[in-house]
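Hi support team,

I submitted a single chain yesterday and got back a structure, but I'm not sure I'm reading the token output correctly. Could someone confirm the output below corresponds to the sequence I sent? I've pasted both exactly as they appear in my results page.

Thanks,
R.
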Amino acid sequence: MLFEDLTLKLDNTGKEPKYNQVARQIEKYLMEQNVAPGTRLPSERTLADLFGIAPMTLGRSLNELVRRGVLTRKVGSGTCFTGVHRTRRIGILCHQPVHVSDWYVGGILMEIYDSFKDTNIDLVFLVRRPEQYTDTIREYQLDGIIVLIVQEKSVPSIISLRDSGYPVVSVGIAYPELQNIGFGTDHRLSGYQATEYLISKGYEKIGIVTGATTGLIERERGYYEAMYNHRLSWHPDWLIRLNEINECSVFKFLKSSERPDALLLTAHSHVVPFYNLIKKFGLRIPEDIALIAFDNPSYAEFLEPSLTVFAQPIRQFTCNAMVQLKNMLTHQDLAVFDPTPSILIERNSCLQQKKNN
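Hi R., thanks for writing in. Yes, this is the structure output for that exact sequence:
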């Protein structure tokens, strides 16, 4: 009998409605067993007894699959498997509104939309906090979610969904706890590598312009780690917070006797303003102060001088995330991907050699 060899695995914590768990596992079984379209299912009473669940729960599960187009009901024929590959809905969730015009976020979204172009998958963008994920999945009847630019506080919620068998991936930052479902760059390592690159060029007085978002904080940690490991001194005035940037503060920073001779710009949005201010105050790049940044916006190579960067492989890690999500949606084994490290693109903003003292 159909479903005789199916043992349901149900999470009773309430994180995902039981009927939805049952519906998902029934659909997975029908697909994996290559059940022929038109095959009639056993009666609801029979299935409820077979699975050991309440008839009401089983009924809601079948209704959900009818709504999704997986099953169909006909008077006198019972409930039958359609065999149709139904349209699925994937949620792209972010903790705050994002601008598609932003080079980094726009690049990720473009790859996501390209990955699902000409498929039976609809994408919906939603601003949601981690504690809202479960309700959002239920409200919008999402078959899977992509968490965009994931924050550290989102990690437990993502792990909980993963452990329940729900299709979920995150894109933007690679957290060790999200192995095989979290895709992005190790920003702490990138910050370390960028600082070490400057040190290898002979720079010792290295400052940083940073902010409060997760990726920027991780880059700042990498910066401190590299400075510490190379036993280089650090001055408090070498740190500028993005929310403190104005012409007066930058002027004071650049004209200080303790001014660094190299600077890490952790946010690409502040590259051009710093270029302009450095030149406005009569300093030269890289003769007076070297610059290195992260990401590789299209304008970086056209700046004067062109900007050295540690670029994130956005296309690669986003494509990997979409492959993994499709594996989950089609009940395939998870793929194992190699880490996607940042890529050094050397240009002219910090190429001048300096000798260590």
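A quick pointer for reading it: The chain has three domains: 18-81, 88-184+314-339, 187-312. Let us know if anything else looks off.

Best,
Support desk
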